[in-house]
């Protein structure tokens, strides 16, 4: 690991939590240079929903490269882009009755978010945007401004203005409806909240601690948008692409966002970001918002193949079954190891085990890594273990990973018991 410590910037992060040099990966497994196998409950922070080196993608990429397919094209028309647009339009959008224009942005998630915010402000001619507590939308200037966590919002980063934060669903507990609260602020001419161009939200806040918005809340937020002439932006960068069991995360809520951001898994591991825009909002002048890496032809090849997963309901069914396994097991863990007062939250195949006691989630993640499971943290205080396995993980690996989480928590509980002089704080009832 010396070269990384010696040469790479201090800013590196995951290499600290998972100190191994990884050299190979397949499906839901990663291998380090010594050949040690790790189960991946991290999936590249949501990039690898379809697994590492998905054979369908790899075969198509190898063929494309061997045939000298276009690699870089700015926003020129290419065969790879044509096939991508056809498949996205006919196989994903049309069957869902979704009429959207497709805008290609720079390749990372934050590029899509910046684009969505810029367009919403331009169309409505208003600078303010409403974002929610615990939101995470990326770390360039406009995206930081709509990201909640103080860790990312250093005063010296300047631009955190023109955004009003409102409480996300459940922020004050289930008794207080935060949509009603938001409506009150918007209705009151003297509330101090400027009428925004857009409200931006994640249907499940992944980085924010796996906070799940109810469908009722999402519907109410959409109603508020319509009532007050505000655009609704759904940031589906982490929980779109099938993560919650449907291609778009908001499908079951039945809402119709004005703007949708997609990134991470859409390129099957290769960088690609897309903004979907209701046709009447597509008011750009040609070339008004550009970027050298708009559209990544290799990612188009990968994405076009991966859309096929949604031609039938098979993957959605598989996700439902795996969700059941994850949810039941996490609830059982929370009920067994009461010392840590764990809470379970999630939807589809993103689940969080909220271990409120300070620093414990990080210790669990470390114990897991020592047992060859990769699992990351989220939440305001890194207090939530975030389960994000590839959607295509084999069931036995999923169960093995859950076993490792339980073993790790068992070990920490026992350590704590020993430190407490064996007070018997495990409640196995
Ligand atoms: C919901 C959401 N939006 C935006 C981003 C930013 O994406 P990127 O890191 O590719 O810029 C992330 C990254 O985790 C995310 O989860």
In terms of topology, how is this protein built?
Elements: H1 2-7, H2 14-17, E1 22-26, E2 29-32, E3 37-40, H3 43-46, H4 55-66, H5 79-93, E4 101-104, H6 109-124, E5 129-132, H7 141-145, E6 163-166, H8 178-187, E7 198-201, E8 204-205, E9 211-212, H9 215-228, E10 231-235, E11 259-262, E12 274-277, H10 297-306, H11 314-336, E13 342-347, E14 350-355, H12 360-370, E15 373-374, E16 376-378, E17 384-387, H13 395-419
Parallel strand pairs: 3-15, 5-6, 5-7, 7-10, 10-11
Antiparallel strand pairs: 1-2, 2-3, 4-12, 8-9, 11-12, 13-14, 14-17, 16-17
Helix pairs in contact: 4-10, 5-10, 8-9, 11-13, 12-13
Bound molecules: pyridoxal-5'-phosphate.
Question: How would you explain this protein's 3D organization?
Answer:
With 429 residues, the protein is of the alpha/beta class. 36% of the residues lie in helices and 16% in strands. The strands form four sheets. It has a seven-stranded mixed sheet with strand order 4-12-11-10-7-5-6. Strands 1-2-3-15 form a four-stranded mixed sheet. Strands 13-14-17-16 form a four-stranded antiparallel sheet, with helices on one face. The longest helix has 25 residues. The protein is globular. The C terminus is likely disordered. The site of pyridoxal-5'-phosphate has 15 residues, from helix 6.
């Amino acid at each position: 690991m010396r070269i990384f410590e010696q040469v790479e910037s201090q800013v590196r992060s995951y290499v600290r939590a998972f100190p191994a040099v990884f050299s190979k990966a397949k499906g839901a497994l990663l291998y380090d240079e010594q050949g040690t196998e790790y189960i991946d409950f991290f999936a590249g922070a949501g990039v690898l929903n379809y697994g590492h080196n998905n054979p369908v993608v790899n075969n198509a990429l190898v063929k494309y490269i061997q045939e000298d397919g276009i690699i870089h094209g700015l926003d020129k028309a290419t065969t790879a882009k044509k096939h991508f647009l056809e498949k996205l339009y006919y196989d994903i959008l049309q069957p869902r009755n979704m009429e959207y224009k497709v805008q290609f942005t720079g390749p990372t998630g934050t590029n899509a978010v910046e684009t969505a915010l810029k367009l919403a402000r331009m169309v409505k001619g208003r600078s303010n945007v409403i974002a929610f507590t615990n939101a995470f939308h990326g770390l360039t200037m406009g995206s930081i401004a709509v990201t909640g966590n103080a860790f990312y919002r250093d005063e010296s980063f300047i631009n955190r203005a023109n955004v009003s934060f409102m409480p996300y669903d459940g922020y004050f507990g289930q008794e207080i409806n935060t949509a009603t609260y938001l409506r009150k602020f918007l209705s009151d001419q003297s509330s101090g909240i400027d009428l925004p161009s857009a409200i931006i939200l994640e249907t499940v806040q992944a980085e924010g601690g796996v906070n799940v918005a109810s469908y009722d809340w999402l519907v109410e937020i959409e109603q508020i948008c319509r009532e007050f002439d505000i655009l609704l932006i759904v940031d589906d960068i982490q929980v779109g692409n099938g993560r919650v069991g449907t291609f778009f995360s908001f499908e079951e809520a039945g809402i119709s966002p004005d703007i949708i951001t997609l990134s991470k898994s859409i390129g099957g591991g290769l960088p690609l970001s897309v903004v979907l825009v209701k046709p009447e909002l597509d008011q750009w002048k040609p070339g008004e918002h550009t970027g050298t890496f708009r559209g990544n032809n290799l990612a188009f090849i990968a994405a076009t193949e991966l859309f096929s997963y949604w031609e039938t309901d098979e993957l959605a069914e598989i996700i439902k079954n795996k969700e059941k396994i994850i949810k039941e097991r996490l609830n059982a863990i929370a009920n067994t190891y009461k010392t840590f007062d764990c809470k379970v939250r999630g939807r589809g195949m993103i689940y969080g085990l909220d271990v409120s006691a300070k620093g414990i989630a990080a210790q669990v993640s470390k114990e897991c890594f020592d047992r060859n499971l990769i699992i990351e943290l989220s939440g305001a205080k890194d207090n939530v273990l975030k389960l994000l396995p590839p959607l295509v993980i084999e069931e036995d690996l999923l169960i093995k990973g859950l076993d490792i989480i339980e073993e790790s928590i068992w070990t920490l509980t026992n350590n704590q018991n020993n430190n407490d002089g064996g007070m018997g704080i495990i409640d196995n009832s």
